[in-house]
Amino acid sequence: MDKNNKLQILKNAIKSYPDFPEPGIIFRDIFGVFNNITALRAMKDLIMEHILFLEVDLVVGLDSRGFLFGPIISMELDKPFLPIRKKGKLPGKVIQQKYTLEYGEATFELQTEFINKGTRVLIVDDLLATGGSMAAAVQLVKSIGAEVIECIVIMELTLLKGRDKVDVPVHSFIQYDH
Fold first, then answer.
1. How many Cα atoms sit within 13 Å of 9 on the Cβ side?
2. What is the mean pLDDT of residues 121-128?
3. Every domain of the chain and the residues it spans
4. The domain 54-176: what is its CATH number?
5. How many Cβ atoms sit within 10 Å of the Cβ of residue 98?
6. Which end of the chain has the lower number of beta carbons within 10 A, N or C?
7. Is 109 labeled as catalytic in the residue annotation?
8. Is the pLDDT of residue 103 over 90?
9. Is residue 145 very low, low, confident or very high in pLDDT (cuts 50, 70, 90)?
10. 3-state DSSP assignment of residue 58
11. pTM to 2 decimals?
């Protein structure tokens, strides 16, 4: 199956919910992909074809949907997986990075015992919207001295220009302009 067919299968499996969580918002839900094995395989294939030649030491997934496909990528690359979680969810020594949400602030944490200076990191998540959480994740990884090779998202809301906040390469498979 070619790349365009895989992209169409993936896009068809993503569910859209108008006016959720509030009027005027169209919520793009990745969970439809996980309920469709053909779409899940297409997503895995697209990701692996894209990152095949990247030199990656560690896969980092963002809380919470990055946890769904980060470990799949990790296993395919035969590299470890490390989560970035919201504040207070990880044991051991952690470092923190605050970021701005639409209505307030949040904090990400990363366990420092599993990542070192010079580690080449691939960051994964399901969606890039305003870019605040992805930019925070990049800064968190860089604060240790690790190198972010690329950020991969399945979907990108291009009108929100989130990639402008992220100072490393970002790859999205599906782009929505609304």
1. 19
2. 98
3. 54-176
4. 3.40.50.2020
5. 12
6. C
7. no
8. no
9. very high
10. strand
11. 0.96
